Amino acid sequence: MLLGVAALYSALLLGLRLGAQDSHAVDVLYLLILLLCAAVAWQAFARARGAARRVLGWGVLSLSALAAGEAAWVLLFDLPGREAPDLSVADAGYLLYYVGLLGLLLLGPGRGRNPAALLDSLTVGLVMAQVSWVLAVVPLLQDPGSTVVFRALNLGYVGLDIVMLVLVLFTLRQPLSFTRWPLLLGLLAYVVADLLYFNLGRLYQPRGPIDLLWAWGAAGQALGIVWLASPGALSAGVDRAGPRRASARLDTVLRALPYAAVLTSCALLVLYGPQNTLTGRGVVLLTAAVFGVVTLRQALSHAESLRLNRQLRAQAEELRLSQAQMEHRAFHDGLTGLLNRAGFYRALRAALPGGAAVLLLDLDGFKPVNDAHGHAAGDEVLRVVAQRLAACGAPHFQAARLGGDEFALLGPASQSPQAAQALAERVVAAVAEPVTLSGGAQVQVTGSVGLARMDGTGASEDSLVRQADAAMYRAKRAGGGRSAALVRVPGEAAC
Questions:
Q1: Considering the chain, what is the average pLDDT of its residues?
Q2: SS in 3 state form for 237-283?
Q3: What parts of the sequence cross the membrane (predicted)?
Q4: Coil, strand or helix: which one is 59?
Q5: Which of 174, 377, 439, 457 could disulfide-pair with 112, CB 3.0 to 4.6 Å?
Q6: Same structural domain for residues 6 and 117?
Q7: How many CA atoms lie within 13 A of 363 on its CB side?
Q8: Phi and psi dihedrals of 433, rounded to 5?
Q9: Cβ count near 469 (within 10 Å)
């Protein structure tokens, strides 16, 4: 509903030629937007839990105060057509709005220690103060018709907006989750609208683009509070690749702002600096030129640095992925995805000091499947057997294909002989289940299983595998489709 009312408000401002009555209707519609923003924020606050309530309470306070201040102005002065005093009850709500924002930004998400970002944000804030001094503050102070209260109040608004601008820009420069953007971008839009309003003075056109920034800025703040009220949003880290790329683009824009601010300061120096003599004018112009060239040089260096950093990060990520893929291929079987012989022995060497159990499986009757149905069908049978073996061994045993139709399971020696024997019987039963090929035909193979176990005392991987291999051939000689285990030998334990 909030977005719908904001869209209607935008359509009225952009598409209609407003008369006096329309003017009041639009003001009431803007008030409705602020009231909806406060209501949405209150609902989100009610759902929040724990530390989120303390932080978001400041956001609720700010939007509620803003809506109250606007309601007072519309109902007491705008609709009745009365002239507002220099300090009214509406100003109380507007000022309390800034108090809530200060609490939200100082206590909320995105705080960090980044001196460079803080200095950049202060640079922009100082230049905005310089612009405001020239365009708004000096004319206000020189206006003979303004009272002390009126001057103090408007100076306070300008100062608070500049403080908000610095805090928002600084927060946006921190690593942020995507869920925090609506709040911060909404605050930025609202503060920029305020500063434009004060600096334009008599050039401000009511119910124009600045009013759109106010409306959508407030809506963004409300939606941001809703997002931050969701579980884990306040502690969320930087998002996945897509939001990270968008955040990098925003960061590039924010990093460019100080350079634009310095150029703006140079322009003000040229336009409003001391120009009483030819010497003075030359000094001013040359100083501005030097600042301009240095700023452009720094901007070019910064852009090149950003490009090189992005390129290095991309290359490092490609290298990491390539190394991970190469390692995976080196230790995994390409057909079944199980560990290959090298991967199996690597895992066995790592497990052996604490004791290990090995189960070897050799398929019986696999060659006739290849002969009758072709090698593609044989590969399909091997993949099915691999899946069944991995399922039987999970979660304590790792499955491997050692080559051809020979497989293995590797697990801890802590398994009791009875549990290991039960595992072997499950493997035999699983392998013996018929396999339906992709062409519809059914085939069946069986498996001979050998078991061996070592407790780590004087053990080697070769001796353990030899034990399991000998037990497996005992099972084959007994007719296949069964399991067998070796008896205990010195320094070794057999299942």
A1: 83
A2: CCCCHHHHHHHHHHHHHHHHHHHHHHHHHHHHHHHHCCCCCHHHHHH
A3: 29-48, 55-76, 88-107, 119-142, 148-170, 182-200, 212-235, 256-274, 280-300
A4: helix
A5: 174
A6: yes
A7: 29
A8: -65, 140
A9: 18
Residue type, 176: L
pLDDT in tens, 322-337: 898 898 899 999 899 9
* Tokens 């001796």, residue located: 463
d(CA 427, CA 432): 9
Q: Which domain does 140 fall in, by range?
A: 2-238
pLDDT at 37 over 50: yes
Q: How many domains does the chain have?
A: 2
- pLDDT confidence of residue 242: 44
Q: How many CB atoms lie within 10 A of CB 277?
A: 9
Supply the pLDDT for residue 92: 94
pTM of the shown model: 0.59
- Residues 4-36: b if buried by 16+ CB within 10 A, e if exposed: ebbeebeebbeeeeeeeeeeeebbebbbbbbbb
CATH at residue 409: 3.30.70.270
**pLDDT tier, 105 (very low <50, low <70, confident <90, very high otherwise):** confident
State which of 214, 238, 262 marks the end of a domain.
238
**Contact assessment for residue 199 and residue 131, using Cβ atoms and an 8 Å cutoff:** yes
- Selection from 487, 349, 351, 459 nearest residue 414 by Cα: 351
Residue type, 251: D
Q: How far apart are CA 135 and CA 198, in angstroms?
A: 8
pLDDT of the residue at 485: 64
Amino acid occupying residue 248? A
